[in-house]
Amino acid sequence: MAIIKLTKENFDEEVLNSDKPVLIDFWANWCGPCRMLSPTVDEIAEEREDIKVCKVNVDNEMELASAFGVSSIPMLTVIKDKKIVAQSVGVQPKAKILAMLEE
To answer: Rounded to an integer, what distance in angstroms lies between the CA atom of residue 87 and that of residue 103?
Structure first.
């Protein structure tokens, strides 16, 4: 499934109204660890049809990043049924990200 570029304008539609769990990757262009994590997130998006994968550029979407309390990136957040069920900061192995999706 394609990765969705998340903005405050499409947040409700893509996340709150989603019938699937949503994995959100908070990142920035200048962030080295974000660039390391990105291929793993992209791979999960391609492999899993049962989830929605979104990315938030924290420099462009400061309001959204602030709403989630992002203080370090990369930060991953899993939302199911309009609730945050898992979060992690820093580069994570694929197995840990997949385990977050099962919580």
So the answer is: 11
Alpha-carbon dihedral of residues 5, 54, 72, 70, nearest 10 degrees?
Answer: 90
Q: Which residues are catalytic?
A: 31, 34
pLDDT band at 2 (very low <50, low <70, confident <90, very high): confident
Query: Tokens in use for 74?
Result: 């990369």
Taking only the tens place, the pLDDT of each residue in 37-58 is 999 999 999 999 999 999 999 9
Q: How far apart are CA 88 and CA 10, in angstroms?
A: 23
> 36: domain CATH number?
3.40.30.10
Domain of 65 in residue numbering reads as 4-102
* pTM, to two decimals: 0.95
